[in-house]
Amino acid sequence: MAVATAPQSIEEQRRWEGSLDQLRGLVSERAITGETMLLNMGPHHPSTHGVLRLLLELDGEQIVSCLPDIGFLHTGIEKSIEDKSYEKALPLTDRMDYLSPMSNNMAYAAAVEKLLDLDVPERGQVIRVVCLELARCASHLVWLGTHAIDMGAMSVLLYAFRERERILGMFEMLSGQRMMSSYIRPGGVWRDVPDDFLPTIKQFLNDFPAKVDDYEALLTQNPIWKDRAQGVGVIEPDVALAYGLTGPALRGSGVNWDLRKAQPYSGYETYDFNVPLGEHGDVYDRYLIRIHEFRESMKILNQAVARLETVKGPYRSENRKYCPPLRSELGQSMEAVIHHFKLWTYGYDAPDEEIYNAIESPRGEIGCYIHGAGANKPRRVHFKTPSFIHISALPVMAKGYLLADMVAIIGSVDIVLGDCDR
Amino acid sequence: MGVSSKLGNLGVVTTTLEQAVNWGRTGAMWPLLFGLACCAIEYMSSQASSYDLSRFGMELNRATPRQADLLIVSGRLTRKMAPVVRQLYDQMAEPKWVISMGDCASCGGVYNNYAIVQGVDEIIPVDVYIAGCPPRPEQLLHGILTLHEKVKSERIADWA
Fold first, then answer.
1. Looking at residue B7, what is its pLDDT?
2. The CATH number of the domain covering residues in A15-74+387-404
3. Domain residues of chain A, as ranges?
4. CB under 8 Å to B23, separation ≥6 — which residues?
5. Where would I find the beta strands (DSSP E) of chain B?
6. How does strand A365-371 pair with strand A354-360?
7. Which has the higher per-residue pLDDT, A1 or A207?
8. pLDDT tens, A241-259?
9. What is the C-alpha to C-alpha distance for residues B43 and B109, in angstroms, rounded to an integer?
10. Mutation for testing the A interface, residue in B33, B34, B39, B41 having most A CBs under 10 Å
C-alpha cells in the first residue's frame, strides 16, 4: 500500500487541507464570511499532549468553537486483538494508555476473568492494588509536569520526573520493563514481588508525601498559576455527566463518582481512602483533585504494603486451564508440561458471551467489552476509554475562553491520544 | 593582552575544517519537540532530571522544524500521521538527521496491521534506528552517541 506523502503542489495542498465548504454547519457562519479566524492547532503542537488536532474558530483571541480531529494515533489495537488468543493480546493493551499501562492490563485482565469466571487469590489482588496505585501516581506525575510546563512553570517537570523514575524503577523490579510491563494478567499477576521490592516501596512511601508538598509549594498558591487556572474551562456537573466524563475531570465538578468506591474491584472496598471532590469544575479544581489523589494513593499504598507482608499464598489463580504453571513445576510434573504447552500454543476457549467490565484508571473509567466466540480468540474487543470522552467535551469547556486558556484546558483533562485513538 | 594573557600559552591545535565543523555539529544538536506515542514519554524521561540530555547540548527542543537539526520519531507512525511527519521533515533546514526511536518507528513493531506505517523509513531517510518497546533512556542516549559518531565521519564532498 502506498503511503501518502506531503503535498507537492498548491492544488494538492488545497485538496489535502479540504475546503471551507466542508466545515459549513460545524463552525459559525461568521467563519465562512471571514469575520472570525480559523486556526489550526496540532497535530504537531507541544501542548496537545500527543497528536491531537484542534480546529479553533477565534473571534480575536476568544474561542468561538473548537473542532477536535482525532485518529492521528489510531493503531488498530482492537482489530489486532481479534487475531490473538486472550493471553497474547495483553501486551497490546499496555500500549493504549501509555502513561498507566498497569490500568489497561487491569481493565483487560478483569474483563477476561469475568468472562471466564476466574477468581484471583487474595495476594494477587493486593499486588494488583499496589501496582494500580503506583501507576496512578506515575501517570499523575507526568500530567503534573506537562500541565505545568504548558502553563509556563518549567521546573515542575524536572521534580515530577525525578519521582516518576523511582516508580518506573519499581515496575522494572516487578516485571523487567519500565513502562510496558504486562504484569497484571488474567488470573493474577505474572510473578510474586521480588524480595527487594518491599524495602524499596517503603522508602518511596516514606519520601513521597514531602515531595507532593514540594509540588504544592510551587503551584497551589502561586498567583500566576491561580490566575491561569481559576475560573477557566468550567464545566457544570450536569453537563459533565451528560458528556459522560469520568475520573478527576468529573470529580472536579463535584460529582462523587469513583469506580473504586461505586463498583469496587480487586478488594478496594476493604481499603480506607477518600475521594477528593472539587466545587467549581475549573482547571484549578481538577489540579487540586489530582494533587489530593497522590495523598489518597499513598494511604491505599501504605495499607496494601502492610498487607503484602501478612497475606501469603498464591499470587495467581491455580486453575491450570487458564493460568500457566510455575516454571519450577515443569521439570517435575507431566501435567504441568501439558498445561504449559497448551496455554502458550492454543490458549483457552472462552464462552460465547458478551461482558463489560470497567475500572478506575488515573484518567477515569476505562472499560473493556469482550464478545467471546466460544473459541480461543475473541469475536470483538472494545475499550471505552476516558480520553476519547474527554476530548469530546473539550469544545464545551473551551467555548468563550481565550486561546491561551486552551492549553490549560487540554492539560487539565489529562488526555492521552493513544488512549483515545487506540 | 587579550585571551592569551589570561589563559597562558595554549599552544596550537591543528585540525581539518571537516573535523572542526563535524565536531561543532555534534555539540548542540537541537531536536524537534515532537512526540508520537509511548516512546515520547521515555524521550521526556531522557530530557528530565535523571538522564539529562543537556549533557549533549540537547536540552533545547525547538517546537518549529525550521530551527531543529534532529527529528526523533518517537512512537508508532500511523497512516493518518505520515504526511504530517513528512512535511515536518521537509520543513527542517539542512543539515538534518533522523533517529527512529523504538520498534514501531523502525519496523512497525507489534502492529502489523492496516493502520501503522511499517517503519518510518518508508517516508523519510533514517540515520539511526533504536530497538526497544519503548527503548530505555540509556538506549536513546546510545543512539544519540551513535549518531554523533556518524556525523563526525561525514565528508565535505558529501555535504553538497
1. 66
2. 3.30.390
3. 15-74+387-404, 77-384
4. B152
5. 70-74, 97-101, 128-130
6. antiparallel
7. A207
8. 999 999 999 998 989 999 9
9. 18
10. B41
**Cα separations in angstroms, A207 against A157, A163, A298, A305, B34:** 18, 9, 11, 15, 33
| Angstrom distances, CA of residue A244 to CA of A197, A237, A324, A391, B127 | 38, 10, 38, 11, 45
Q: What is the pLDDT of residue A2?
A: 47
- Contact in structure between A389 and A408 (CB atoms under 8 Å): no
ipTM (interface pTM): 0.85
Q: Are strands A380-384 and A365-371 parallel, antiparallel or unpaired?
A: antiparallel
The answer to whether residues A182 and A175 touch, using CB atoms and an 8 Å cutoff, is yes
| Residue-wise burial string across A106-138, b where 16 or more C-beta atoms lie within 10 A, e elsewhere | bbbbbbbbbbbebebbbbbbbbbbbbbbbbbbb
Q: Give this prediction's pTM.
A: 0.89
Domains and CATH numbers, chain B: 28-151 (3.40.50.12280)
The span from the CA of A134 to the CA of A106, in Å, is 13
Handedness of CA A209, A211, A213, A215 (dihedral sign): negative
Residue A181 CB: number of other CB atoms within 10 A?
22
Distance, in Å, from the CA atom of B83 to the CA atom of A195, rounded to the nearest integer, reads: 49
Q: CB–CB of B49 and A50 under 8 A?
A: no
Q: Which residues of B touch A179 (CB under 8 A)?
A: 38, 41-42, 134
Residues of A in contact with B116 (CB under 8 A): 75-76
Residues A109 and A107: their CA atoms lie apart, in Å, by: 6
Q: Which chain A residues contact residue B34 at CB under 8 A?
A: 44
Mean pLDDT of B73-83: 89
Distance from CA of A2 to the nearest CA of B (A): 9
Which member of A75, A145, A180 has the closest CB to residue B78? A75
CATH topology of domain A77-384: Cytochrome-c3 Hydrogenase; chain B (1.10.645)
Average pLDDT over residues A152-164: 89
Strand-by-strand arrangement of the A62-69 sheet: A37-41, A53-59, A62-69
